[in-house]
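Protein fold
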Amino acid sequence: MSTSTARPSVLFVCVHNAGRSQMGAAFLTHLGGDRVEVRSAGSAPADAVNPAVVKAMAEVGIDISAETPKVLTTEAVQSSDVVITMGCGDACPFFPGKRYLDWQLDDPAGQGVEAVRPIRDDIEQRVRALLTELGIPAA
C-alpha cells in the first residue's frame, strides 16, 4: 500500500505502446510532474511511436518524439499502484490489490493527425480526472 509520502505509480498499457498509452503517459508526466511515477508499455510493442501521435502531442506542446515503445513486463504491473489499460484486453496481467482502469478509446494506429486529435483530447481529460482522484494538482 502506498503511504502519503510515496508518489503514486501509474502504468499505461495498450497493445503497441505507440499511441494511446504514450499519450496517457506523456500527459500524466506533463501535468503531474515529479509528484507521480509514470510508465507505459505494450503487450506487443511496435517499432516506433505513431508519427501522427507525435505530431498531435507536439500541437499541445508535449514532445514525445524520443519515446520508444516498451514491452509490458510483470514487474511493471507489480510495481504500479494504478494500471490503465487501453484496448489490450486479456494480454494485461492481473494482480490482486492493484487498481485497474480500462479506458475505452479508439486506436490511433493507421490514422492521420485529424483522427488522433479527439483521442488525444479525451486522454488529456481522463488524465486530469485521474490526477484529481489521486489528489495531485495538475501543473
The longest strand covers residues 9-14. The longest helix spans residues 113-134. The two ends are 25 Å apart (CA to CA). The mean pLDDT is 91.
